What we know:
By secondary structure, this protein is an alpha+beta fold. It is built from 6 helices and 6 strands.
Amino acid sequence: MHPNPLFRSEDRTLLEALIDEVGFGMVFLTTPDGPRVAHTPLLSTGDGAVQFHLARGNGITRWLDGATALVAVNGPDGYVSPRWYGDRATVPTWDYVALELEGRVRRMDADGLEGLLHALILRHEGRLEGEPWSAAETPPDMWRKLLGGILGFELEVLAWRPTLKLSQNKPPADRNAIAAGLAQSGSPALAQLIRTLAR
């Protein structure tokens, strides 16, 4: 989390929306084998927890149940050029949106894992155009075999640490120029966040 309080938010709805929109993150854990990170789809339960699944053979899975772990979700980010400021006598920076979630992890039972998978499929298939794919299209034997290769986990969030670094420390004219520059240079999502959140 960035140390500047200007870049923090207590807006839980916004933070839940970030998890939902991004839908993917990293799970970090210090294990007896050393520090480990796993990349995984995420699903917010809406009541203070996030769920995820990992390959059974992933080096982090045997240490997760009962541990305190960190989940990181990265939103849009982009380079901010001093050419976009009213006064160019400064240095470049980077604007970004990120969320760290710290909490206790528990392993889900088979029913919980299956429920997580169906919820992820429904959410992501619903975002695509055309006829959605259904898990029922997978032969039952194949589904059971693939399900046996993964483990489901739920992290009960004890600490939310967001960073929304959106040039809030700059005057409105500079923020408008930064948003325009980011939009033109291929970061329209970050530009939109600056326009809507950094007031």
